[in-house]
Design brief:
The complex is a heterodimer of chains A (about 290) and B (about 450). Chain A has about 290 residues and is mainly alpha-helical. In chain A, about 75% of the residues lie in helices and about 0% in strands. Chain A contains 13 helices and 2 strands; from the N terminus they run ααββααααααααααα. A two-stranded antiparallel sheet of chain A has the order 1-2. In chain A, helix 6 crosses helix 8. The radius of gyration of chain A is 24 Å and the shape is globular. In chain A, about 30% of the residues are buried. The termini of chain B are far apart. In chain B, about 50% of the residues lie in helices and about 10% in strands. In chain B, helix 2 links the parallel strand 1 and strand 2. Chain B contains 20 helices and 9 strands. With about 450 residues, chain B is α/β, with parallel strands linked by helices. In chain B, strands 1, 2, 3, 4, 5, 6, 7, 8 and 9 form a 9-stranded mixed sheet that branches. The chains are: A mainly alpha (about 290), B alpha/beta (about 450). At the A-B interface, helix 12 of A face helix 3, helix 19 and helix 20 of B.
């Protein structure tokens, strides 16, 4: 009731919203609409000849084996990144939550990697694991492992997943730590008094109370794995070898920016947009029900 | 206080602007000519120096060079600027962008036309055909102006050969394979020999060097309705051999670009095929006795060795500019063609001279006696008169095509498919992309 009585004029709320709406329209919806329109066209790089081809760009993509493989690859890739970075961050956060001497320093150090730009992170890992330059690759080779991500697709995937997950751990850590510290000590103490051992306390008390954070991070991490891993892939593998690390967003870049195939690239962006919208919707509709707030 | 400072600043800048406007305009307006390029380091210095020299040589035009990032970045910047109606006059485009530029009728001004209309002295015969051929139509009309050209050569670690008791530098592929096995046995276990730019070395140059087509219609120079043809016996045999040798790293894959060139200078790979432009790095970093030699060939191929094809970039003149501006561009291109200037560019950058006269002069000056490795690519390029198969490549979507070919080669080298399957797939996937490019070509 009170909420409504604040604005007496019908215009004022819209006026106050206007700047935000303009920003959203100009920077979000306009490009999105442009992408949809572009995806119906076949155009040369210079925009000199344009023909309307309706859904042909989409049909081309969906009949390509390579594109279907890229979709599957991207899903597997994001599952791996989200899984790895979430579990590692949770482990670190639980440890950091314990009363430790110098805990503040420890926590700060753990947050640092987040400040590293994706491309820089990629290059850092590349320096460690490059087949001929890398320090770690020499070690791996000394152990008798034929480390060659230039030619071995599985190793290239491992390399990219590792670097991309590492980059996201700090962010997840921060949220997990905040989540853990928000859990009332009294609940934990009560469980301890009831005789629950640490592992049991974690799974029956801490984790359920942490589910809102887990859920939020799951969404963020999947979106991260879909879009923000671009820099890491670009710096480390360029999508190779033999497409092993070519995710959907990287393919958009390859076809659109390097290949100047704007129609197909736009169609791919639209599909990518649809996938992420659908994923997020599913998460909110079904996963959120299992979350205890 | 801060308000007053801002006010003061504003007043000052207005006064300055007014004063500038009040100054008498120069008697004759200088026409600015924008030149976007992708060269860094020492080569950027060459570009800046050329512009300065040209600007000092006359007073009507001013060349303004601007670095726009990597080759693909520069090309995309040019395309975006054109779409926004704001293209530079001269755009440096790498050789694989040639078909895209050529297809853009109206977006570019062919160099032969430009020179004709501007009335500049221009003799196509003065240029080395193996270099200009890449940038000319099948009728020999020069579309863009070659600026920095290189070719692929074989770099040799002579100390390593000695260590493996190899007396002579290998000339043919069978000799390279044989020597690589000896090197492998002598301790070079991670890499007997290797190639940078996997498709350039093992498909494009290989085909031209053996006078075998990569694609129909003179490798695309004769029209965009071209079809890929590189799944022939020569290419299959070459790739199949590489697959066999990859198993124990007698040959070891070094990626799609030149990222792994350091494997040569570090001494890991004693035989390495890459661009002749690699010489600066080798001279600076290799701590062993080195040289280079022409690319190897298969001696049972009747025409081998033919001539090699070039890499590097050329200058495209963009369309839609005024006649005055075009006169300035034409003057600048004529200025670049000057023999002494070409020799100087060749010396300073290591890129190839583009005219016959400049090559002759460099020889006459004894330049190659002190730097014989700089003549290797020239010998390759001028080895024989170019044929339909060795003049150059003009394939649309070339950047993507190369990626597709590289993907298939990577799958083959990883042992996932035999050479024939890989090349057949590379051809059919590539043909699909060529058909799509053909449809988007401006009519």
């Amino acid at each position: 009731m009170e909420k409504q009585s604040v604005f007496h004029s019908r215009l004022l709320p819209w006026l106050l919203l206007a700047p935000q709406l303009v920003v959203i329209l100009v920077f979000f919806y306009w490009p999105a609409v442009q992408a949809v329109w572009q995806s119906f066209l076949l155009q040369d790089a210079f925009g000199l000849s344009t023909s309307f081809v309706a859904l042909e760009n989409y049909a081309d993509l969906l009949t390509q084996d390579e594109y279907r493989e890229a979709v599957l690859r991207t899903f597997a890739f994001s599952a791996a990144i989200a899984g790895l970075s979430l579990s590692a961050a949770l482990l670190l956060a639980v440890m950091a939550d314990k009363p430790l001497r110098g805990g503040a320093i420890y926590r700060t150090l753990l947050i640092w990697p987040y400040a590293v730009a994706p491309a820089v992170a990629g290059v850092l890992w590349l320096f460690m694991l490059h087949p001929s330059l890398g320090v770690l690759s020499r070690g791996l080779r000394a152990l008798g492992i034929d480390w060659n991500p230039l030619l071995n697709g599985d190793q290239a995937v491992a390399l990219v997943v590792l670097a991309a997950a590492w980059k996201q751990i700090s962010y997840n850590f921060l949220f997990f730590l905040a989540g853990l510290q928000a859990i009332p000590r009294s609940v934990m103490e009560a469980a301890a008094i009831d005789g629950a051992r640490p592992m049991r306390r974690f799974w029956t008390v801490t984790f359920p109370l942490l589910t809102p954070t887990v859920f939020f991070l799951l969404v963020v991490n999947i979106v991260y794995a879909f879009f923000d891993t671009f820099g890491v892939i670009d710096a480390m593998t360029g999508g190779g070898p033999a497409k092993a690390t070519e995710t959907l967003v990287y393919k958009v870049y390859l076809d659109g920016l390097l290949g100047n195939n704007l129609g197909s690239s736009a169609a791919q962006s639209v599909i990518l947009m649809a996938i992420v919208i659908a994923l997020t919707a599913i998460q909110f509709r079904y996963v959120e029900r299992r979350v205890t707030y | 206080m801060s308000k007053r400072r801002i006010g003061l600043g504003l007043t000052t800048s207005i006064v300055v602007a007014l004063a500038a406007a009040a100054l008498p305009a120069p008697a004759q307006a200088v026409t600015e000519i924008q030149w976007w390029h992708a060269l860094t380091g020492a080569n950027n210095d060459v570009v800046v120096k050329l512009a300065e020299e040209f600007n000092a040589s006359q007073s009507d035009y001013k060349i303004v060079p601007a670095y726009k990032g990597s080759y693909p970045d520069t090309m995309n910047a040019g395309i975006a600027a054109f779409r926004a109606g704001n293209a530079p006059h001269i755009l440096q485009v790498f050789e694989v962008g040639t078909a895209t530029m050529m297809a853009a009728t109206g977006a570019v001004k062919p160099v032969y036309k430009l020179m004709q209309e501007a009335g500049e002295k221009f003799d196509p015969q003065a240029y080395l055909p193996a270099i200009t051929g890449y940038y000319s139509t099948s009728k020999g009309e020069m579309l863009s102006f070659p600026f920095n050209s290189s070719s692929m050569v074989m770099w040799i670690n002579k100390d390593a050969l000695k260590k493996a008791n190899i007396d002579t530098i290998p000339k043919t592929w069978p000799e390279v394979f044989e020597d690589a096995k000896k090197l492998h046995a002598a301790g070079y276990t991670t890499c007997g020999f290797s190639t940078a730019w996997v498709t350039w070395a093992n498909l494009e140059q290989l085909s031209a060097w053996h006078n075998v087509p990569l694609a129909t219609k003179a490798n695309g120079l004769g029209g965009f309705d071209t079809e890929l043809k590189f799944n022939g016996p020569l290419q299959i045999r070459h790739l199949q051999t590489l697959i066999e040798l990859q198993k124990d790293k007698t040959y070891d894959y070094s990626g799609r670009t030149n990222n792994a060139e350091g494997r040569f200078t570090s001494g890991e790979c004693p035989i390495f095929l890459t661009s002749s432009g690699f010489f600066g790095q080798v001279r600076a970093n290799a701590k062993f006795d080195w040289t280079n030699a022409p690319m190897p060939y298969y001696p049972d191929m009747p025409d081998a060795p033919q001539n090699s094809i070039i890499g590097g970039a050329s200058l495209w003149v963009m369309g839609g500019k005024s006649p005055t501006e075009y006169r300035g561009v034409a003057k600048f291109l004529a200025f670049l063609s000057d023999t002494d200037r070409q020799v100087a560019i060749h010396k300073a950058s290591g890129y190839l001279p583009i005219t016959r006269a400049a090559y002759a002069k460099a020889k006459e000056l004894g330049f190659y006696k002190e730097a014989p490795y700089l003549e290797t690519p020239l010998k390759e390029l001028t080895n024989k008169e170019p044929t339909e198969n060795s003049r150059g490549l003009r394939l649309g979507n070339m950047v993507q095509l190369r990626d597709v070919w590289a993907e298939e080669i990577e799958a083959a080298l990883a042992g996932k498919k035999p050479a024939k399957d890989a090349l057949d797939t590379a051809v059919s996937r590539g043909n699909q992309m060529l058909r799509q490019f053909q449809r988007t070509v401006a009519k």
